[in-house]
UniProtKB/TrEMBL annotation:
PANTHER family: PROTEIN WNT, WNT RELATED. One of its GO terms (biological process) is canonical Wnt signaling pathway. Ligand for members of the frizzled family of seven transmembrane receptors. It is found in: Secreted, Extracellular space, Extracellular matrix. Belongs to the Wnt family. Keywords: Developmental protein, Disulfide bond, Extracellular matrix, Lipoprotein, Secreted, Signal, Wnt signaling pathway. This is Protein Wnt. GO terms for molecular function: cytokine activity; frizzled binding. Pfam families: wnt (PF00110). It comes from the Eukaryota. One of its GO terms (cellular component) is extracellular space.
Length: 357
């Protein structure tokens, strides 16, 4: 008889599947630069080797534009922070981005969560470069061009606007290059994330708005200068979260001469340029299932009175919760002493906390 397969060791197909997944995820592996990328000065092309192990397609761009790499490292940190903040009240809370560049299945496959993170990361790179231009940090760009619209009667264009154009140019080249490479990867996942990257940049571009500063005698605002500035990444993340909740499940099909992303359900409207799209359903993230990239919600804090996703009912998936009390120490009974200091007492207060079973 054939020898029994070795026990307790992953079978070969699992390894092959893993390699395949690594290929799929390459587009956001640069998020891992928050660790390694902060340790080098990015003033020598050899520093680009930090990208080599993860995303070779981004190497040429790094070598040609070393000066933007600081912005990209900052964008990686900003993406992680904004993602976790936007999803703090959800079962999937984006904690898995911390594992970059070694992601789990929640971000390796064509899931909704992956759609969100790709869109946010693509927006973040463009955002970071556009603002670095305006802060005078980059040699090849400066403030955004003066808006073509006629200023209102009460202001004039001035100050220094974010350079969205330059940010889009370099940001798109960086974020999309791994998805445009010809290496063996599933066409559907590439198409999905190219689409989602573009959605992220569109949401960012739409956030460009007029910001003003008042001048004049004692803040009378008789003179106002205005420029075009982008929203902060937290607001972009919150817009993208709404799109995540309304994301459309698609398949990649030949439609006419080209492959296109079309809704999986017959009765769904065609995909628009502002919709996030995904290919496979996510687990409910209620229980631990590492094959599916689910960490489960056991021990997550929940809100007993909320009816939203952070409420104990939804967060704990009906398993119930444990209550414990915790002592918090706060400053209180503060008194102002003339002049000029404040003295406070320390008050202790018990608060109830609820944690999923
Ligand atoms: C790069 O920066 C580091 C630290 O600031 C410095 O020691 C090194 O000489 C620089 N290299 C080049 C090629 O300028
Ligand atoms: C996010 O969820 C994981 C898994 O349940 C948990 O370990 C982690 O503490 C959570 N993070 C936050 C900030 O709540
Ligand atoms: C819990 O949810 C309620 C209702 O949404 C909200 O008013 C309250 O501030 C939340 N409590 C905490 C601790 O987040």
């Amino acid at each position: 008889p054939a020898p029994a397969p070795a026990m307790g060791r992953p079978a070969v197909p699992a390894a092959a599947a893993l390699l395949c997944q690594l290929g799929l995820s390459a587009a956001i592996r640069w998020l891992g630069l928050t660790e390694s990328g902060g340790r080098v000065a990015w003033n020598e092309t050899q520093h680009c080797r930090l990208l080599a192990g993860t995303v070779p397609e981004q190497l040429p761009m790094c070598r040609r534009n070393l000066e933007v790499m600081h912005s990209i490292v900052r964008a990686a940190a900003a993406t992680k922070g904004a993602c976790q903040k936007a999803f703090a009240d959800m079962r999937w809370n984006c904690s898995s981005v911390q594992r970059a560049p070694a992601f789990g299945p929640d971000l390796l496959k064509g899931t909704r969560e992956s759609a969100f993170v790709h869109a946010l990361a693509a927006a973040a790179v463009t955002h970071s470069i556009a603002q670095a231009c305006a802060s005078g940090e980059l040699p090849l760009c400066s403030c955004g061009s003066v808006p073509s619209e006629v200023p209102g009667p009460d202001f004039r264009w001035g100050g220094c606007g974010d350079n969205l154009r330059y940010g889009l140019q370099l940001g798109a080249a960086f974020a999309d290059s791994p998805l445009k490479s010809s290496k063996l990867r599933t066409q559907a996942v590439k198409a999905m994330n190219l689409h989602n990257n573009a959605v992220g940049r569109q949401v960012l571009s739409d956030s460009l708005e007029t910001k003003c500063k008042c001048h004049g005698v004692s803040g009378s605002c008789s003179v106002k200068t205005c420029w075009k500035g982008l929203s902060n990444l937290g607001e972009i993340a919150s817009d993208l979260k709404s799109k995540y909740l309304a994301a459309i499940k698609v398949t990649h099909r030949l439609l006419g001469p080209r492959k296109q992303l079309i809704p999986k359900e017959m009765d769904v409207r065609p995909v628009k340029e502002t919709d996030l799209v995904y290919l496979i359903n996510s687990p409910d993230y209620c229980t631990v299932n590492l094959q599916l990239g689910s960490l489960g919600t056991q021990d997550r804090q929940c809100n007993k009175t909320s009816v939203g996703s952070d409420g104990c009912n939804l967060m704990c998936c009906g398993r119930g919760y444990n209550t414990y009390t915790e002592e918090v120490v706060e400053r209180c009974h503060c008194k102002y002493h003339w002049c000029c200091y404040v003295v406070c007492k320390k008050c202790r207060r018990m608060v109830e906390r609820y944690v999923c079973k």
